[in-house]
TrEMBL record:
Transmembrane portions of the chain: 70-94, 101-123, 129-150, 177-199, 235-257
Full protein name: Cellobiose ABC transporter membrane protein
Family annotation (PANTHER family): ABC TRANSPORTER PERMEASE PROTEIN MG189-RELATED, ABC TRANSPORTER PERMEASE PROTEIN MG189-RELATED-RELATED
Tagged with keyword Transmembrane helix: yes
Xref: Gene3D superfamilies: MetI-like
Assigned keywords, A-Z: Cell membrane, Membrane, Transmembrane, Transmembrane helix, Transport
Length: 273
């Protein structure tokens, strides 16, 4: 009982620590500026949240921006799940010349900060005539070095090399081996990668700000940045936008939470062995 109680206390503290930023945002979003200007900051939510949501809808086109973000993030998530799984399967179970060197290049690319690639990637996007289009926001994120590494490890653990060899001996093409052997074995890690890619693309700010016209209705993060501009920042309105924009990511995590925990627990068990 002491061990269970101690674990419950530790987990409870971790939950409170994790939810404290969301709770603070809720408190600020539901108060007005007069409450925030007091010497003692409020600790409980107020009654202005719906009022601020209505004002937010009038100030910016957040609904269209969230639709744009959802379309971009969904395309990036599906593409990463597919392309990274293909690359991970190739690096894990296919034999070809230069495999290790090419994989080292992929890992090395993960060490390069994303900001260093904004200028050359923008030059390519502009040369292709993709500026201010969904292609400019989607194509650079179709595959990631982390996703390739993640799916390679998943294929090494879940895809049996003997089964791949047996399928090839039976006459299966590489596409059929991938579709019928590899993909069913790594559906869990691929789903987790899709969720992580969706959340990363949804929260992306710098690249959509560069690749999309900020005067139009770009992604949700770019639209929300307008609320913090100028000489005066309305913090309750800004935090209201933050709460609204974080809802899709929270819903996605709730839907995939059991799958995420199962995949991470299985990975921890394999590491422990």
């Amino acid at each position: 009982m002491t061990g269970r109680f101690g674990r419950a206390v530790v987990l409870g503290l971790l939950v409170l620590f994790s939810l404290s930023p969301l709770y603070s945002a809720l408190v600020v979003a539901s108060r007005d500026n007069a409450d925030l200007a007091r010497a003692t900051p409020p600790l409980l939510p107020g009654g202005h949240l719906l009022e601020h949501v209505g004002e937010l809808v009038e100030r910016v086109d957040l609904a269209q921006a969230m639709v744009n973000s959802a379309l971009i993030a969904s395309a990036v998530a599906v593409a990463n799940a597919v392309f990274c799984t293909v690359a991970g399967f190739a690096f894990a179970r296919l034999r070809f010349r230069g495999r290790e060197a090419l994989f080292a290049v992929v890992l090395a690319s993960a060490m390069v900060p994303t900001q260093l690639g904004i200028v050359p990637v923008f030059m390519v996007v502009d040369a292709l005539g993709w500026y201010d289009t969904f292609a400019a926001a989607i194509v650079p994120g179709l595959v990631s070095a982390f996703g390739v590494f993640w799916m390679r490890q998943a294929c090494l653990e879940a895809v049996c090399e003997e089964l791949v060899d047996a399928a090839r001996v039976d006459g299966c093409s590489l596409a059929r081996v991938y579709w019928h052997v590899a993909l069913p074995a790594v559906r869990g890690p691929a789903a987790v990668l899709a969720m992580l890619s969706f959340a990363t693309s949804w929260n992306e700010f710098s690249w959509p700000l560069v690749a999309l016209d900020p005067n139009d209705t770009p992604t949700a993060q770019v639209v929300l940045s307008r609320l913090a501009g100028g000489y005066y920042t309305d913090y309750p309105l800004v935090l209201t936008g933050v709460l609204v924009s974080v809802v899709p990511v929270l819903l996605l995590f709730v839907l995939f939470a059991r799958k995420v925990v199962a995949v991470l627990a299985r990975g921890a068990a394999e590491t422990g062995r």
